[in-house]
Amino acid sequence: MLSILIPTYNYNVYPLVEELKKQADALQIMYEILVQDDHSTLFLKENSEINTLVNCYYTLNTKNLGRGNNINALQLKAKFEYVLILEADALPKDGNYLANFIKNIFPTTEVIFGGVVYPETKPQPNQLLRWKYGCKRESIALQTRLKKPFHFVFTWNLLLKKEILNQNPFPNSVREYGYEDVVFLKKLKEKKVHIQHIDNPLIHYNQESNLVFINKTETAIRTLKQLMENKELDSDDTRIGKTFFLLKQLGFDTILRFLFLKFHNRILSNLTSTNPSLLLLDLYKLGYLCNLDNPLQSKKK
What we know:
This protein is of the alpha/beta class. The chain has 2 domains: about 1-205, Spore Coat Polysaccharide Biosynthesis Protein SpsA, Chain A (Alpha-Beta Complex); about 235-295, no CATH class. The chain is about 45% helix and about 15% strand. It has 12 helices and 10 strands. The chain has helices at about 15-25, 45-50, 65-75, 95-100, 130-140, 140-145, 160-165, 180-190, 210-230, 240-250, 255-270, 280-295, and strands at about 1-10, 30-35, 55-60, 80-85, 90, 110-115, 115, 160, 195, 200-205. The strands form 2 sheets. It has a 7-stranded mixed β-sheet with strand order 3-2-1-4-8-6-9, with helices on both faces. Helix 1 links the parallel strand 1 (about 1-10) and strand 2. It is globular and about 60 Å long. It starts with a strand and ends in an 8-residue tail after the last helix. InterPro entries: Glyco_trans_2-like (IPR001173), Nucleotide-diphossugar_trans (IPR029044). Keywords: Transferase. This is Glycosyl transferase family 2. Pfam families: Glycos_transf_2.
């Protein structure tokens, strides 16, 4: 019936597994919960307790694979027809989470995305940027998602046929953070795989600090540049790629590089403040990409 795949890194995923097991047992379905730890150094003892739970399995990678390759490895272990990919730092919104997916599986089902929400309570000031980004850019209402099924979808809280994941693995070229999901979803779109959207969100308890999120954003932009250079993504596949290509065509990329370097510290000051601007985050990402493309000078933080 269902293989639940949870890639994790330095996070205590035991509470999530415990809740999922409780729901799956109540449904009396055939299931397995597979957790694969991507060479963590934290929460090893807590996560090893997963192996004491029936139908639940925890393994630790001997080296870091990256998120996409970790999911690829998980799906090779999965034994059931459908797989459900989750994030380690998320929890079901209610006790009907698995039941809501199960009742939407039909013989023609290929992919189902349940959506994501964020806690209503603001986090600590040094964690506001990631929370605000999630609330504004990732927590999208069902009716909006239905209009653009491939635009508002992530590769977690995602249920799909195992054979689709097997035939369309995540790119093994991506070892660092970012955009492996875009490559994967691009392949599904090209093959006209149908994505069904339902209202069955996970609550994403991402507690990254502002600086960690900014550093991960920079890593993601470097990954995007690599993917575009390798022709795994086109400029039209992402909003930032489209804007970057347009700026280059108009010859404005040099101006943005200059402005990025000149106002870099001021932008960072805003992004780490108690009222971070997502517009400035967009400009930061674009300026960072422009500077990677043809750096004017070294940038220091």
